Amino acid sequence: MTIRLLPAQLVNRIAAGEVVERPAAALKELIENALDASSTRIEVTLRDGGQSLIRVVDNGSGMDPDELVLAIERHATSKLPDEDLWNIHSFGFRGEALPSIGSVARMSITSRKRGADEAWLLTVEGGVVSPLRPASLTEGTCVEVRDLFFATPARLKFLKSQRTESEAAREIVEKLAMAHPGIAFILQEDERRPVQFLLSPQLIDPEQMMQERLSAVLGAEFMENAVPLDCVREGLALRGYAGLPTWHRPTTRQQYLFVNGRPVRDRVLLGALRGAYGDLLPSGRHPAVVLFLSVPVRDVDVNVHPTKAEVRFRDAAMVRGLIVAGIRHALEPAAQFTTSTLAPTAIGQFQAEPYVPSCGAFCHQHSIFAESLSAQSDFLPMARVAPQGDLGDQFVSFSDPVGSGGSTGGRTVLQPPVGRLGAAVAQVHGTFIVAQTAESLLIIDQHAAHERIVYEQMKQAWVKGDIKRQILLIPEIVDMDEARAARLLAAAAELEKLGLVVEAFGGASVLVREVPSLLGQSDVKSLIKDIAEELAEFENSRLIEVKLEALCARMACHGSVRSGRALNSHEMNALLRQMEETPNTGQCNHGRPTYVEMSLSDLQKLFDRR
């Protein structure tokens, strides 16, 4: 076939397929141009999800007539001061955006350069450029894009519903508004109420501006359940907010990642995010984060993707390490807390239709209750009390863990040391511990809490290479199918690092000789079978660390206090103290919350006392 050059209009339409695949993509290009023009206020108007109209008005530096003509030429740019492709400090670079949009839509650009006496208008329709003519406009630029893809109607059938396209456009505005809290954004869609992200004149601190903008975009609930992070390493800077592990989401939609102010969906960053939250989230759930990564311009390539949705780092390992370490360091003091949304949910479960008994029924119940109290002369403030010493050495010993006893009316009342999680007052259904502080009431899941404690202890011992093992008096023989047995024996060396010694025992059986001391009197057979299942998920994984952490989690689950086990006051308070001293105790190994805290004021409201 004969090689020939393509016409300019066809080249522009091909470029439009890469850069402007939907209205939201065109909107992103136009807003980024406004940002590069040093605008402080950007107004966006959409009709029919952006298909009928996209209008972006800014108060930036504007363009003179000569610049206006060059703006619609391919590869004409104000973004590069020289021929150095790595010296990119602005959002735009590729010259395809405006000419590509003009080749598939009806576009008009009105601009007035700052300090100029008049504005100028340039129109492009299906790639055909009309002559410049004078116009009326205050300083800045107004770009209108009408009938997107009218020149390429085949692309219209690839658009989603109007609602979906509208949501995508709004998401673009929200992301750029988060990245630039010092700029006001206004979005008007059809006849809906405008969405406004304005500036508070009294705010001059960048951090306060960022907090206000994130609250406006994501809601106050996000800020209540997120912790700030700010770290620097070898020229890289990471700041933003990381959501608490217990405030997880069903999708990744609330993961906002920015590199040098650009919103991206980069695989390196997403992988680092998964690694940072690793064992803190339930399976299938995702963290909510807003991360701003600043990288020297020569250490990141922003032109590996037509719409710059992806970037390439010179040192991806350094970036990943910064994100993982930064998030974990920020979460470390906060991971002992659970999300603030649990308390209202718990309070709501107590709400019920008021029951007003008859006088006869009330008197009868009152008399029974009085008789019950008189019969319990040694009534203790514990719902269930078990003999002490049931857990043996599984709890870390404390100085005077029981506290001093005081005699009150012939009854001995325990006074345990009180920390952040207060003192235990009862155990409910052998599963939940009720504790109180000066200002709140807590309900703790004993199995989930102790599971996290054992897991963190195992991880620390594993890192130090100091997992203590106990030899079984009678080795345990576990029968399973050959595939599971082979998988288990193949991981024998890794299991030994965790204090679990297994050997082949002919056929499809394995022999267990030693187990970690931390597990106590656990069901060895169930543990081994569960580990064999766990290994199936990591069969093709070379990430030994991930595999060992998963095994630690599985073993901790078997070695922790089970639901239904009665605990005495000594054991319950020891568990609370350990929770205060152990990292990440706000959630168990599976990411579920370990406790719910309800403030005293909420409880008083529940009973109409406030």
Overview of the structural elements:
There is one protein chain. The chain is an alpha+beta fold and 610 residues long. It has three domains: 8-197, Heat Shock Protein 90; 219-331, Ribosomal Protein S5, domain 2; 420-610, MutL, C-terminal domain, regulatory subdomain (Ribosomal Protein S8, Chain: A, domain 1), CATH 3.30.1370. 35% of the residues lie in helices and 22% in strands. The protein has 18 helices and 25 strands. Strands 1, 2, 3, 4, 5, 6, 7, 8 and 9 form a nine-stranded mixed beta sheet that branches. A five-stranded mixed beta sheet has the order 10-11-14-12-13. Helix 12 packs across helix 16 (544-559) and helix 13 crosses helix 15. The longest helix has 19 residues, at 446-464. The radius of gyration is 32 Å and the shape is elongated. The N and C termini lie far apart (85 Å). The model is unreliable at 352-417 and 540-544 (pLDDT under 50).
Radius of gyration: 32 Å
Please name the CATH architecture of the largest domain: 2-Layer Sandwich
Largest sheet: 9 strands, mixed
Distance between termini? 85 Å
Outline: elongated
Helix count, per DSSP?
18
Provide the helix percentage.
25-40%
- CATH H-level homologous superfamily name of the largest domain: MutL, C-terminal domain, regulatory subdomain
State the CATH topology of the largest domain.
Ribosomal Protein S8, Chain: A, domain 1
Give the number of DSSP strands.
25
